[in-house]
Design goal:
ABC transporter involved in vitamin B12 uptake, BtuC; 2 domains; two-stranded antiparallel sheet
Length: 434
Amino acid sequence: MALSHRRQGRYALHPIDLGRVAVWGSYTLLLLLAPLVFTSSLSQTLLSQMGIAIIVCLSYNMLLGQGGMLSFGHAVYSGMGAFLAIHTLNRVTGGLPLPVSLIPLVGGAGSMALALLLGWVTTKKAATPFAMITLGVGELVWAMALMLPEFFGGEGGISGNRVVGSPVLGVSYGPQIQLYYLIAAYTLLSTALMYAFTRTPLGRMLNAVRDNPERVAFVGYNPQVVRYIAFVIAAFFAGISGALAALNFEIVTAEVVSGYRSGAYLLFTFLGGATFFFGPIIGAVLMVLAFVVLSEFTKAWLLYLGLIFLFMVMYAPGGVAALLMMNLRLALYGRLRSLWVSYLALGVTALVTLLGAAAMVEMVYHLQQGDALGPELSFLGATLDVRGLNSWFGAVFVMLTGWGLFELTRRQFVAHWSQINQDIESDIRRRETL
């Protein structure tokens, strides 16, 4: 507890926010204990990638969620951080006296310098002009990556070796778990700093610029300056993320500055929930699972991502975080148990719809392979004839049936949900009048 001000001759004490302490404590324990629970090399690699993705998605949300700036070129700054880190790593191999653990700061500082150079022009306007400028900058850097092989390494990229110099206290960053804890430390520190930014007057002013820039200008602040500072800070953390990725993979290619990578940041930050600080953390975990795990199950995984994105835009535009917070509110008032049947029905009907759609997607993809794979397709234990009418009719019938039942269930669920929220609001107003 901290002393804050005098009140009636006594010092008033602010109680410690136990909920916030519990959240940050749990987050720290999760980062510390995760590799001890998931001990395989693949699991630790996935955890390392999740930590890297958390930093870059949180930095992207500093623009999108907190500042209302839709960027199509955020990969420029994470990618440049990666290239600067891999070049620095090679200099360290050549004798530069710099600890490997500080290389991510070099990547962050380099990306911040680039943002200082390009950010003023980029943040000159907001909304659509800002998005188009970031898209143009992203395409410019992507083209330069193919034109300047001395820096970007051409199609083969640039590789390095993170195990350089003598180990310090037995830490050489050769084993994956050692690198994971370095990434976890940067993830925890970056998350804390970006959260602290949201509590500062500058962070609050960034929210005001997002909501009403004209009013911000009226009270004496320059909206562009606020956007510019936030843009530079976001680039710094993006550079740290890119540098950690360079250490993790020990190779950096031109793909890291591509529009495809920027689109991935946008997609999964939105899916996680851009309106909540912890939403991008969820989105980052989903991004790694989609890129690494889902891609192992099907070659059409990008199409599934598009369908999921479309589904979320239609039915849950607030992202996964919004769904969690809505249900947490009901749980706090003891009304969540009355919805479990509705949730079960929604899950079953959504699963049926997904099975029908997935069968169609897999058959279309199978057809694109020509005669090399034959007419038969094995799908979840069933054999489908991609050239037969019955398989197509069955897939369409399952998908449409599931969709219809899902819509019917969803409408009943929405009516039930609205009634519960009305009851909660009535209870709140009644308690306030007592």
